[in-house]
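[09:14] KT: can someone run the structure on this one? pasting the chain below
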Amino acid sequence: MNGFLEWFMNTIGRYISSELSVFLVSMLPLIEERGGLVLARLLQIPMWRAVVICVIGNIIPIPFILLLIKKIIHWMSDHHMSRIAEWLTDKAVKNKPKIDKYGFWGLTLFVGIPLPGTGAWTGSLVAAVFDMDLKKASISILIGVFLAAVIMTTFSYGLLGIAL
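[09:31] RB: done, structure tokens below
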């Protein structure tokens, strides 16, 4: 992730503000809020401003994923992008048991615990592909985003004396 963040700041980040850089990074799949908070710390953005920027950036894609991803996957399958569509579906199938085991709180923990391959994007993908209740999934994912913000802020800003 640090390599991507360095590349981003040396290319796109040269032309936009630090806050906008953090916001955009927080919206990206796989990088998400976790990367945004690391970047915010590197750019010396004050902690509370960084948390707000990253949480908002991470939340914005969620409704679009929940409402549109199945249509996008279907469209991709019909337009010579079936490998990507299959990869997305396989990712959802692979992660469904982790979430199903604990239901609402399973999705919350899946989104909130900062491990590779978890986060709001993947949690939203799983919820949408398997037709989870939209309201419950949204609330669960939002709680997970806030949990991830607490965990990543703690480590990114060295609140326990350990910084990333």
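[09:33] KT: thanks! The longest helix spans residues 134-156.
[09:34] RB: yep, looked fine to me
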